[in-house]
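quick one, 401 residues, struct below
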Amino acid sequence: MYSMSKTLLSAAEAAAYLGVAPASLYAYVSRGQLRSEPGPDGRTRRYRRADLDVLKQRKGRAPDGARQALDWGMPVLDSALTSISEGRLSYRGRDAAGLAAAGSVEAVAALLWDCPVEAAFPAGSVAESGTLRRWRAELADLPGPERMMALLPLAAAEDLSGLAGPSPATAGRLLRHVAAWAAGTAPDDRPLAAVMAQGLRAQGAAAERILAAALILTADHELNASSFAARVVASTGASLHAVLSAGLAALQGPRHGGMTWRVQALFDEIDQAGGPEPALAARLRRGEIIPGFSHPLYPEGDPRAAYLLGRLNELGAERAAPILAAIAAGERVTDAPANVDAALVAVGRTLGLGPEAPFLLFAVGRTIGWIAHAFEQARDGGLIRPRARYTGPVPDPTFRG
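---
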């Protein structure tokens, strides 16, 4: 128990004060809804009661079960794709880190799509129409995410087979196109990791291996915001191209895959400050969050980040050292392990890739999961159409306009 006169609360006290689980407390911090400060030991975090009161007022009355389910709550859909349990991520019962070590992006896609690799990725299946080639050339100067968003509906107009519902061949062909668009190159039959490595200008076998691991580890993550958006669109019977458009649109938000841009900005500040400590201190003085650390589903540490950061030295210990030092400093300040957003940025910066690379890797990897959810929703059938709880004025039965 704690004294009501205390102005600074520990994480356990703050969670109890809000009436939420510790994971929800960390989610508020990671989403920028709550500030935290370093504790006296430099490792733990403390929370101001005034900030907690503001959050409680903003949240209003306690949400009911349905509302809680939409905010890191109880499961709302059945799925056989991904399990997140006891700090581990698994695809159809197989450990994602083990799959990343094996290194075949195509095999993981086929696993999630529940089909043979040959059915999804037959040789010679990536023909690009002249019209689509011209459109791709016209849009080459757009930023990667916008280029992908623009090309998806154009490709849909050229690929009428997608209107017949998702199939392994259509899915594999579309994934190869998406990877090529992200990489800024023409689609071909090479392994997806090789296409990404060439387009992002990542040199060497070690670079290609870690890019493959990044694609595999971001392939799916249960009902995250973009996968839920994609699944809702799939439930309407829309084409696979439309499903991916929905997923990609949601992924770009700064609270989802767009978090990689915020982590990039943090690393830019670290470079400008000459080290992590002054950059992190400046952020804390301004009351800003430190992006890239903690994850509500992994209170003991994100296994995706652990795998990628554990392989970073393979890209060159000298290049990896300052990146890993910055990650370690961030973990000390936030009292939380790095998450996949920080790990993707760490991979990109160690390889010397452009600032878009972490997001593009995330987008291409997650495309696999969006397609898997489309397949699963097509098999399950039914329209995803939740109800809203009306909170506006009481309807006037006498009003007739």
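The first helix runs from residue 11 to 18.
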